[in-house]
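User:
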Amino acid sequence: MENTSSSANPLLELSANLAAIVERVGQSVVAVHGRRRIPSSGVVWRHGIVVTAAHTLRREEGIELTLPDGRVAAAVLAGRDTSTDVAVLKLDGVDLDPVESGDARSLKAGHLVLAVARADEFGTSADFGVVGSAGGPWRTWRGGRLDSFVRLDGGLHPGFSGAAVADARGRVMGICTSALARGFGIVIPGMTVERVTDELLATGRVSRGYLGVGTQQVTLSDAWIKKMNLSSNRGLLVNSLAPGGPAEVAGVLLGDVLIELDGKPCRDMDDVQTALGSVSIGQPLKIGLIRGGERTECSVTVGERPQRDSCR
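Assistant: Predicted structure:
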């Protein structure tokens, strides 16, 4: 007689374990109605707090959530940060258990993960796959900083942005998004979600420094490197200036080449973004630059980046 018990069949055991993880995590996953047609997913991150992917919200009011038991509840948008694609919703009068979070920095390429989403028609949905690649802190194309880079193998199904990403132990490592990379899903790590949630709940927005410059990377000549004793052969050519922006007010000119920020090499936009954290706003930033073949310096008072987070 064929033995079909899970203890004798590792595939059945794996299947049962995955289903148990989806069921457990799914009790803290909701459907978010913040756009037309297909809802996105959201995760109960704290008591009364739901996080989702910011790009899926197309309105600031009238947001509703479908809860795990099928009830529909109203939610209030506390804030959204498009640079990390995190939005925070407040859910009053409904007590759902938050997920058990884990550290996404522990994930490696090849690790098995589960994306747990929720759609109205079918309830809990799941996608099973592997981590395609993983690495250290990563700067998004919108200037946000993710505490680790975790690429999912393949794309995401419709409605999976904002879904929980769980490891093989059922710990939620973060939430999914399809908005930060082309052709595949990215995990917004739990550490990033925590940090952005704290700031959005406190102020309603994430503040970032602002110079008001448009640049392109250039290679510096050997003559300049030797003449100015530079540590890098890269710099940033200023090709546009925001009218009345911090850089223009400080005297930066079109054609200047940025080579240092507070004594550190300025080789690319990652170096600029690193120097422009929220604590830099209102503070002087010493800029080393090349103008007319000569090295010079100026001091820029860092401004606050204009907010472009309002929903369309």
